[in-house]
């Protein structure tokens, strides 16, 4: 029995379902390992010692390479002094100053642990500011796993969802109609920087949509909240909609903020400082200093080393390599999303069967990517790592072609 299989058998006895949540390997494909023991740069090793070129970056958090020495040194130095103390360390102020310096729409920052903390807290600020209940959210968008937003409805009551009003992403008329239907009671419009729903091709935000939701929020006196949890730190360190000239009132950040160390943030504009101050919103570990030290180090590396451009370059290299391979092997694929947060699907593959088979073949070749969730690149994805990955994805396409009975 493999070590992974043994751990799964033991887990089945002591962990509900053997595993839960987004890292439940059963959701990803039959051959995906559940347990991992090590990461280094752009690589990860599973419990049985198999090495993978990692194109998932732990579902986003890893952005400057697993065990980045600068980030780890900053976190370890803080850890050696104390992490969870009777009050936050000076690092909390330094980190908030860094975010306020970097992000034009940030005049203040509050910290927590997970993306769900940040999206939930941002909506609390919007509701505190407006005294209103409703939040306009895109149908199918993921904003976290609390009762108000989890895609699974088990354990959730209807009243916990009653204030979500849905619209279709990029459909400004639908947002306006949703706002009109709840005239006077809309606290916030909550959007992701691009459409990155699971199981389907990704789509960029249209400029008219981005500018339109900004104008609508202003018109109705609601907060525009951008959920940067997935896209944040990979597209534009100033905020993902800077290129549109659109600045939110509130942003929720997490995932890649501290290269795998647990931290999230809400940043907001001056006008919402007062309402933010009125919240009782806290957690035992929200003020821990070492994750804040890791966040400061991570963001400085990205800022000083032009990290976004590095990730974009890696993504373009991967994308053009995959496009050439797919064509050479006779597959029609679509590659969507920003290059640094990519995804690949096969034309006409409605059941995703082909995508699942190709991802499994990539896994067998030693490339960890995902059949129905977008992938993530990091600054550790050097040209050499991408080229190594492409050798393996080519073998996976070849295997798929052979299995499909093509010549
Ligand atoms: N918002 C978005 C856009 C996300 O992608 C995620 C996580 N996948 C979340 C919120 C929730 O973050 P967390 O899992 O850290 O609570």
Automatic annotation (TrEMBL):
InterPro entries: Aminotrans_3 (IPR005814), PyrdxlP-dep_Trfase (IPR015424), PyrdxlP-dep_Trfase_major (IPR015421), PyrdxlP-dep_Trfase_small (IPR015422). Gene3D superfamilies: Aspartate Aminotransferase, domain 1, Type I PLP-dependent aspartate aminotransferase-like (Major domain). One of its GO terms (molecular function) is transaminase activity. It comes from the Bacteria. It holds the Pfam family Aminotran_3. Keywords: Pyridoxal phosphate. PANTHER family: GLUTAMATE-1-SEMIALDEHYDE 2,1-AMINOMUTASE (PTHR43713), GLUTAMATE-1-SEMIALDEHYDE 2,1-AMINOMUTASE 1, CHLOROPLASTIC-RELATED (PTHR43713:SF3). Belongs to the class-III pyridoxal-phosphate-dependent aminotransferase family. This is Glutamate-1-semialdehyde 2,1-aminomutase. The lineage of its organism: Bacteria, Bacillati, Actinomycetota, Actinomycetes, Streptosporangiales.
